[in-house]
Structure prediction request, 460 residues.
Amino acid sequence: MSELLALPWHEARAEVSPREYLDACLDAIAARDGAIRAFLHVNRDAAGDGLPIAVKDNIVTTDMPTTCASRILSGFRSPFDATVISRLRAQNAAIVGKTNLDEFAMGSSTEHSAFGVTRNPWNLDCVAGGSSGGSAAAVAARMVPAALGSETGGSVRQPAALCGVVGVKPTYGRVSRYGLVAFASGLDQIGVVTKTVRESADVLGMIAGHDPMDSTSSTHPVDDYASELEEGVRGLRFGVVREAIEQLTGEVRENFDAALAVLRGAGAAVEEVSVPSISYAIAVYYIVANAEASANLSRFDGIRYGHRSSSARTLEDVYADSRAEGFGAEVKRRIMLGTFALSSGYYDAYYGRAQRVRARLRHDFSEAFRKFDFLLTPTTPEPAFPVGAKTGDPLSMYLSDIFTAPANLVGIPAIAVPSGFARNGLPLSLQIMAPHFAEKAMFRAAAAYERETQFWREKR
Prediction:
């Protein structure tokens, strides 16, 4: 059955019954996850004759706990399903489990989980990326064909890149956020992790569309995302973001240049383009995201739900002690940074200025898309790093999002596609960004590159 799980889902379901395939997934989780720790909860009673899929544990489900990998929500069970879960169930998908993440999706390595580190299937001494590290590792280890994650600054694409799988961030508003535990509401978007581009296109088609329960949900029509996957890239225009790669050296640059050569060989036009404000994106992101997080996480107060301190004697103590005991160090750091950025006397200097630069970034991307169909960068500045290598240096960890955060700030779709391997054998990845709601074209471009390279076939 292990070879069966290495096939794309649409091919595997022609070989065996849905029940046999689901059982193969559950057996693979039992056999492999002890070393990887991709899952926080496994649904051994999962049923459904459709797609077996794992779900990041910040997306609420009625039949399994939703903890956000935080002690403050340990054991919490939602009274309702997220919209994406309802849509998957309506199509007979089998929700096989909830995956590990950085606590409240705040991190780039899945080392900030209260329930243990998720390890990279390619090298167990290395991180799986984050914050959707459990989802990426589960797909990379061939335990499930697909998983849902969430994106705020690259938390689907970055771990997908480090684990050698496909990661998709849709346009902001393309997928309902109803039932996604909020980190930064103006940036958050549910995304997809799979082995292949075709599988990502299929899964996005299952969950995309307007939802009246989400005020930010778009009414833009849902495309048939898989309908142009065989069309190729001849005549399409790809812009290489100059400011993103001008300092890039070493094997990541060599790999990126090789990816550009593949696209040129397939008939695409590939040229450099300037996006001047992109160099400010990471600074803007960590102001905006942390400011919104400080507001969103105020609901975890020891009163309404979640952990309540047993030692508190006053209402103020309940708030302070419950949050101190329930939140981990990284979440506390981001709440404090965000609260400071919003505080009296500093709001305009930090949050207000960041939003003005964000508007400039949107303008610069719009100008670039006037000339090009897609924009290109590497997905990450380096392959997966060793566990523990960056936990003592938050700034170094934050730079893991340097290529992915701009798409979240602008709200455009982006995809991470495996692009080969570093000399140490760890995966590298190409990022393709597209204009708003151009997911179908983006999948077409990614599928063409994937078809030319076939890196997804490499065994973990």
The mean pLDDT is 96.
